């Protein structure tokens, strides 16, 4: 959709204040600990674009709350697993050797959207050190969530996801669906459904030097997440509403993670 089409489809001017009002109406309040998944275009034409959205989120939760976004860099991974696109096997050693090291202040996100990419650059935003599955956070609990992100099992018990679970955080979908819901990977990790662990690799800094680091990861399958989400909504309370022109969902992470874990565990027994 072109910018002109977006303007024509936007019914009124969208600003920081209008977004903040909509977020409060949805249930995003001061002190909220919030994981955000977002589509900028879904909101309509905004004066200030993604910067305005981030400022509105920060104004809605205030600095007594916390905002978290996934800032993954999945291109910094072992090329033998790449599918979009795959690369020739003879390139793999060169990619492992020449891939730039992950640098949290510099390395751009991949596939996270314009809001998450801008968010990681904001003052006082902290970014975790995982070379391919990092998260960024701002606010009261940022350090608690981001620090000590284990390189092994990036979505497991020593991850920002587990800390969000501990804090009874919520997840906000802005124009997205369960397929983007990173928190559900913690449910996968806890399901004990027989999925396999495997060796992954990334370029990162270690003791001041660039190294190719291998670590353990667990098989993931976000293709199931929309099915799980639909089943979850039959049992749990999910807040639906609009922010600007975007359909949104506000969901507590704990029951969603617990449901995901049970669902997958039961599925593995069938």
UniProtKB/TrEMBL annotation:
Entry GO MF terms: aminoglycoside 3-N-acetyltransferase activity
UniProt keyword Transferase, yes or no: yes
GO BP term, pick one: response to antibiotic
Pfam family, one: Antibiotic_NAT
Acyltransferase as UniProt keyword: yes
Keywords tagged on the record: Acyltransferase, Antibiotic resistance, Transferase
Family classification: Belongs to the antibiotic N-acetyltransferase family.
Protein's UniProt name: Aminoglycoside N(3)-acetyltransferase
Organism: Pseudobacillus wudalianchiensis
Organismal lineage: Bacteria, Bacillati, Bacillota, Bacilli, Bacillales
């Amino acid at each position: 959709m072109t910018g002109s089409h977006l303007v024509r489809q936007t019914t009124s001017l969208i600003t920081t204040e209008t977004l903040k009002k909509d977020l409060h109406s949805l249930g995003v309040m001061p002190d909220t600990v919030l994981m955000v998944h977002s589509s900028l275009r879904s909101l309509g034409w905004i004066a200030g674009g993604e910067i305005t959205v981030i400022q509105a989120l920060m104004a809605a939760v205030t600095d007594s709350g916390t905002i978290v976004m996934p800032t993954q860099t999945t291109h910094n991974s072992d090329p033998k697993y790449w599918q979009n696109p795959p690369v020739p096997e003879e390139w793999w050693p060169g990619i492992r050797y020449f891939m730039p090291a992950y640098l949290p202040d510099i390395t751009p996100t991949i596939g996270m959207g314009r809001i998450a990419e801008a968010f990681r650059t904001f003052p006082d935003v902290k970014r975790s050190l995982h070379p391919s599955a990092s998260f960024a956070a701002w606010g009261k609990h940022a350090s608690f969530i981001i620090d000590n992100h284990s390189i092994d099992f990036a979505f497991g018990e020593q991850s920002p996801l587990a800390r969000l679970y501990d804090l009874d955080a919520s997840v906000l979908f802005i124009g997205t669906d369960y397929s983007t819901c990173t928190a559900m990977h913690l449910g996968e990790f806890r399901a004990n459904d027989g999925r396999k662990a495997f060796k992954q690799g990334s370029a990162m800094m270690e003791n001041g030097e660039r190294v190719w680091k291998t670590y353990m990861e667990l098989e993931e399958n976000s293709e199931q997440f929309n099915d799980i989400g639909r089943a979850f909504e039959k049992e749990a309370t999910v807040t639906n509403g609009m922010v600007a022109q975007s359909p949104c969902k506000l969901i507590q992470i704990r029951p969603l993670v617990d449901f995901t874990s049970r669902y997958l565990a039961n599925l593995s027994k069938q």
